[in-house]
């Protein structure tokens, strides 16, 4: 019933041209930075929180991890690569501890 009502409203918006006014009409939605780096089971809950105006600190940590990994891929200097690997390792440890804490609280 609710799906049918949503479909009806979307159809009406399409017919009266309201949807075509949207800047992103007919284009794929932009993917959030860090989406692929976020564990699949946490993507939707984190997205819901973000859309409501609250993003847990773990989201930022996943974005940082993705940025560090990308920087490491592009880096040619071996000393800098080693420093980036160390930063990435420390960040991944921090993330692992945070995720374990979340899992432990979810089990309570």
TrEMBL record:
Q: Where is the DnaJ homologue subfamily C member 28 conserved domain?
A: 10-72
Tell me which domain of life the UniProt entry assigns to the organism this sequence originates from.
Bacteria
| Protein name per UniProt | DUF1992 domain-containing protein
